[in-house]
Each structure stands twice: as C-alpha cells, then as structure tokens.
C-alpha cells in the first residue's frame, strides 16, 4: 500500500473499529477510484471453445461469459466498495435484530443483503471483493490455519494458533480493525530471571517483537482480572493468565481468549 489517501483512510478505520463512518468514507473513495480492466479470461471478448454448454461446434469462438464479449471488466474496486457498504448495513441490521428492534421490513432487507453478500464473495470477483486470502499467503500465513470473521468489510475476529498470532498479529492489525482474537493453543511463555540490575520478566518463548511483562505488571494485571472474592491468582509462581496478559500487549481494544492450560 503506497497511496497516502488509502493509508489515512485505513488508519481512521483501525482507530475506530465500532464506527462505520470511516468504512463508508473508504468505500466512497474506492468507488471514485474504480476503473475498467482488460478481461483476463479471453482475447478481445471471445473464448476459444471453452463454453461446454454451447451447442456451437467444438473449436469455434464463443462469447466470453465473464466480460460478455466487451473485453473489459470492472477492476473490482466498485465491487469491493459495495461489499463494504453491504457488510456495514448488515452489521447495523443484525445489531437491531439482537436488540429486538427489528421491523418486518428490516427482516426482508437483511435477507436481500445476505444474498448480495454471498453473490459478491462467491460469484463476482472474490479476490478483489475480499482480498484477504491472497494477502495472508503473502504474509506467509496458510489461510486454512485461520478462521476469520469479517464485519463491515474488514477482518473483525481471528481464530488461529498462538504461533501464527505471535508471528503475524501485528501485520494483521496494521491493516484490519481486529477486535477479538481466539487462540487455539496456549502461548508458550517463559520467565527470564533478573540480571544485571534489570527486573525479570515474562515473555513469549518466541517473540520477534520481544514483548514482555515484569513480575509487578503481571501481579497488577492478575489483580485487575481476578473475579471479586477469588484468591489472587498471582499467588502461584506461574499462571496461564500471563499468556493472556502478554497477548493483550498486541494492542488495546482487542479481546483475547486463550485455551486453558
Ligand atoms: Zn472476456
């Protein structure tokens, strides 16, 4: 990403994950940038003998199904803009539905939006509409190793193992307003003892960014997280909560779940 406009718009989205306004501003901007592209499926609008449904003789030229014979296609940006708008409206309607404020007209609209969301992601140009899988592969992440929930056009929640999140969480959060992370494995956490006048600290066993928390921060964090009336969990030398506290170092506003143990 090199476009300064896009960088500023994306920063606004990440700074306010619960606010749809920056997402809709981004969608408007994207729509303004939208252009045509050359059809990659055919040569000047025609396909050689690929239409198996056709009754035309084998080997004949057929009209391209993708571009309808024009040789030109949308570059996908208008579709991505629509996808963002559809998902924002879906999220708002779903919230109303959960609160019990939905009207019969809302239910109809919800159905139509869900259908359109499915069309955009499954049958239009999925790579442009939802460019996430290619992007994850570019980061070196196997998309099959993550479960992603999208809201309002971007990733909202990630389920993956601890190693994937520790290695790539920062990169994901730099481009997506992630608000929830569920780790399927407990992060490996080690205690580094005090040395040379420096406090000891907990750290991920393999943490490229060297995120760490001190014993004092750990105790304070445990006290803040302990349910009222429960014994102070930091009374023991090691507690799996330290993994949660460290994981939370990936940024404010992100709710973490880690498996027990
Ligand atoms: Zn074509």
Low-pLDDT sequence parts: none
Mean residue pLDDT = 79
> Which cofactors or ions or other ligands sit in this model?
zinc ion
Strand order of the largest sheet: 5-6-7-11
Secondary structure class reads alpha+beta
The run of helices and strands is HHEEEEHHHHEEHEEEEHHE
Can you count the helices? 9
The profile of the biggest β sheet is: 4 strands, mixed
Which of globular, elongated, flat, extended, rod-shaped describes the shape? elongated
Tell me the distance between the termini.
39 Å
Helix content: 40-55%
E-strand count: 11
**Hey, roughly how much beta strand do the residues contain?**
15-25%
Rg over C-alpha atoms, rounded to the nearest angstrom:
24 Å
What does this protein look like?
The protein is of the alpha+beta class and 261 residues long. The protein has a domain at 131-261. Helix content is 43%, strand content 16%. The protein has a 4-stranded mixed beta sheet. A 3-stranded antiparallel beta sheet has the order 8-9-10. A hairpin with a 2-residue loop joins strand 5 and strand 6. The protein is elongated. It binds zinc ion. Zinc ion (ZN) binds next to loops.
Looking at this protein, list some descriptive labels.
single chain, 261 residues, alpha+beta, four-stranded mixed β-sheet, three-stranded antiparallel β-sheet, elongated, binds zinc ion
